[in-house]
Design a protein that fits this description.
Layout: H1 3-12, E1 18-19, H2 23-27, H3 37-42, E2 48-52, H4 58-66, E3 71-76, H5 79-91, E4 97-101, H6 107-110, E5 116-122, H7 138-147, E6 148-158, H8 161-173, E7 177-182, H9 200-207, E8 213-218
Parallel strand pairs: 1-4, 2-3, 2-5, 3-4, 5-6
Antiparallel strand pairs: 6-8, 7-8
Helix pairs in contact: 1-5
């Protein structure tokens, strides 16, 4: 492990906007702030927006700057990445931002049913060979549906045509309510201030001429999801950098 990473981990222990639950706190029981994020952490009743697989936290921080009357939480297992967003939030005095270092599979141990108003998924690994790890797959939609309020929204921004098409099939198979669907965000006229927030990975894909895709849809409390039985063409390029050590 590099010296820089060790320094970040050590410094991050003092960040009051970073939560790093132990194995026992999330695997064997419910986390202490489950159902209490507004009351005990943010000290307000504002809606909570969750970014799953937040990476460096560009979206979590970017949205928090635009919406001071909402609370934003980024979750990722990569501590060195979370450090970037957490430090920026502290340096700029954002009190409506928090980060959790843990696995997305454990969301149900961390949040109460209906505690989340919106979920953002920005440039995840498309997991072309592992359906159970796709963040818009039926396994995760079941988790999201339990956590989201009845009017809750899911956003997906991706470079991956594979993940975009897969998510489209999931939405169709499960008759989910579509709010926005575009396979070329920046040429669709839909790229407002919110959708124009660019992550580290997004900018690299744009530099390569790869169009950005976007889905915005609702789960509306649905509990049972059907996995689509389809063959989807794999991405022609390597989704570089996602496992890059930082």
């Amino acid at each position: 492990m590099g010296k820089n990473k060790l320094q970040r981990f050590a410094e991050m222990k003092s960040f009051d906007n970073v939560f790093q639950p132990t194995h026992n706190e999330v695997w064997e029981t419910n986390y202490q702030f489950k159902g209490k994020w507004n009351k005990d952490v943010f000290k307000n009743d504002n809606p909570i927006v969750l970014e799953v697989g937040c990476g460096k936290g560009e979206y979590t921080v970017g949205l928090a700057k635009q919406f001071p009357n909402k609370n934003f939480i980024g979750i990722d297992i990569k501590g060195a990445r979370i450090y970037c967003g957490a430090k920026e939030a502290l340096d700029t005095g954002l009190s409506n931002v928090a980060f959790i270092r843990t696995y997305a599979e454990l969301l149900q141990s961390i949040f109460e049913a209906g505690e989340i108003a919106e979920i953002w998924i920005t440039f995840p690994d498309p997991q072309m060979k592992k359906v159970g790890k796709r963040l818009t797959g039926t396994r995760f939609l079941k988790l999201y549906s339990n956590l989201l309020s009845k009017e809750g929204i899911v956003h997906l921004k991706t470079d991956s045509n594979f993940l975009y098409e897969y998510t489209k099939y999931v939405i169709k198979e499960n008759n989910l309510k579509v709010l926005v669907d575009t396979n070329d965000l920046y040429h669709s006229g839909k790229a407002d201030e919110i959708l124009s927030i660019r992550t580290f990975y997004e900018q690299q894909f744009l530099n390569r001429g790869i169009p950005i895709k976007y889905h915005k849809f609702m789960l509306e409390g649905k509990t049972g999801f059907i996995e689509p039985d389809v063959e989807i063409e794999l991405d022609w390029y390597r989704s570089f950098g996602r496992e890059k050590k930082e």
